[in-house]
TrEMBL record:
Residues 112-244 form the SusD-like N-terminal domain. This is RagB/SusD family nutrient uptake outer membrane protein. Keywords: Cell outer membrane, Membrane, Signal. SUPFAM superfamilies: TPR-like. Pfam families: SusD-like_3, SusD_RagB. Transmembrane segments: none annotated. The keyword ATP-binding does not apply. It is found in: Cell outer membrane. InterPro entries: SusD-like_N, SusD_RagB_dom, TPR-like_helical_dom_sf. Belongs to the SusD family.
Length: 492
């Protein structure tokens, strides 16, 4: 018992060091010189609370400032920060005024072609930190092939594998133009003690994500999460659907559709017409699948997603770095569509009626208490429709799309045109509705890449107004950062 208590104390200190360390090297290791490898791989099973603490650290990393390596950078605040990056690259999010020069070089498409620019380093470091931390959790639970005895440990292992795959998925999207099985893209780290590796081919990275998420699907059976911050079976299935959809072949499309339908069948209702203009600020919204319950204890303020997007928060949006929907995309929203009212036509098409603090005091929310959204069930309706349309299942695609639109229009006649669409016209409509429904939620970039689109900016962009740019343009994909190239001898 004394040996176990000492082990627990030392390992807890190692965990704390892992999550508080701000070293520059993403391969920084937690101190393990005081405990044996055998102890490490059994610790999580001996005391599940240690694995839970590790996981809480990863979930916190997803919302904390400075996790990309720059604590004073007001664009560095975890997953929602990269959602803003990708929405800008897609062109659907328009920077309409740039008085404080936040995102200026990025939106001007200068950052992504300069491997020395911090905007490339931040996501690379952040996602590999998630991977490193997930690998540590997996190691404490017995490793990649382990099947723990207790349900608690199975659920912890399933969450860690889901989070590891989540990070690899976003890296694969941000740092490569499109799926190419033989092209080397990312170093693939599967344990916390791996040495520095060369880039693995895309097929290996995707196979690893699929393996992780398939295993997580099984491990997370019966996981009853305390709130939607935890990644449950539906999160794992939805991420796996996105992975298959990004591959783009017919067999993968069908697998993606099946997984999306499984998540839909789990019973999350679509957001109602009232809810889609209700602020997007509450994790308890029934349609939300995954997010984070923000409290004052998280210490978020100006450097946050709300501090960049919400005019009713003390924010850049309020102060002068204005962001709104691309005006061409806005013009394609039908007048009777409730989503048209999400945007303020007087104030630069800002999302004043989509994302907002409930008090609705201009510049009012100083310390953030509004929640973060990562995923909701509408994504799965749209992904199911997209995959069905690509595979010639027009009726299934129309059904899923109509189910969504029935919550966005009062009269069925307003969206009856969908029933007359087929083939490419139907697919184009699904893609358009995806951009409208999920605007500002970090999903347009993923759609742009898997659908191989050329995006044309409207006239309300400060930079590159009217620019047409294909998804393969190097400016739309991040560069492997200078720091990684300098520290990894296998990358030229």
């Amino acid at each position: 018992m004394m040996k176990y208590n000492i082990l627990k104390t030392v390992f807890a200190l190692a965990v704390i060091t892992t999550f508080l360390s701000c070293g520059e090297d993403f391969l920084e290791k937690s101190p393990t010189e005081f405990i044996s490898a055998e102890d490490v791989i059994t610790t999580g099973e001996l005391d599940p609370s240690i694995s839970d603490a590790n996981l809480r650290g990863i979930y916190s990393m997803m919302i904390n400032t400075g996790t990309g390596g720059f604590s004073t950078d007001h664009e560095d605040f975890g997953q929602k920060g990269y959602d803003i990056f990708t929405d800008f690259l897609s062109g659907d999010l328009a920077l309409t005024a740039n008085n404080y020069n936040r995102y200026g070089n990025f939106v001007n498409l200068l950052s992504t072609v300069d491997y020395a620019d911090n905007d490339n380093y931040m996501p690379w470091r952040y996602y590999y930190r998630v991977i490193r931390s997930a690998n540590q959790v997996i190691s404490t639970l017995g490793g990649n092939e382990a099947i723990p005895e207790s349900d608690a440990s199975k659920h912890a292992l399933g969450q860690a594998k889901t989070l590891r795959a989540y990070a690899y998925f976003y890296l694969s999207q941000l740092f490569q133009k499109e799926y190419n099985a033989t092209e080397a893209i990312l170093p693939l780290y599967t344990t916390p003690t791996d040495p520095v590796f060369a880039q693995s081919p895309m097929s290996d990275v995707y196979d690893f994500m699929i393996e992780d998420l398939t295993s997580a699907d099984s491990l997370l059976i019966g996981f009853d999460r305390a709130n939607k911050t935890g990644a449950n079976q539906d999160v794992a299935r939805a991420l796996l659907a996105y992975v298959y959809a990004a591959k783009g072949d017919s067999a993968s499309n069908l697998l993606a559709k099946g997984l999306a339908d499984q998540v839909i069948d789990a019973g999350y209702p679509l957001m109602t017409s009232t809810e889609v203009v209700g602020g997007f600020n509450d994790l308890n919204t029934p349609a939300w699948i995954w997010g984070f319950d923000i409290t004052l204890a998280n210490g978020l303020d100006l450097a946050s997603w709300w501090g960049q997007i919400d005019v009713f928060t003390y924010s850049y949006q309020w102060a002068g770095d204005r962001k709104g929907i691309d005006n061409v995309l806005f013009s394609k929203i039908k007048d009777n569509d409730i989503r048209k009212t999400q945007f303020d036509t007087i104030n630069s098409l800002q999302p004043r009626n989509k994302f907002y603090n409930a008090a609705r005091v201009i510049g009012g929310q100083r310390n953030i208490e509004d929640d973060y959204i990562y995923m909701r069930v509408a994504e799965m309706y749209l992904l199911s429709a997209e995959m069905a349309a690509k595979e010639g299942q027009d009726a299934a695609a129309r059904t899923r799309l109509n189910e969504l639109l029935s919550e966005r229009f009062t009269e069925a006649t307003d969206y009856a045109y969908v029933n007359g669409l087929s083939g490419d016209d139907l697919l184009d409509e699904v893609i358009l509705q995806t951009r409208i429904e999920l605007w500002g939620e970090g999903k347009s970039y993923l759609s742009m890449k898997r659908n191989k689109q050329t995006m044309t900016r409207g006239t309300n962009h400060v930079f590159h107004s009217g620019l047409s740019i294909p998804y393969t343009d190097e400016r739309l994909t991040f560069e492997i950062p200078q720091a990684e190239i300098q520290n990894n001898p296998f990358i030229n």
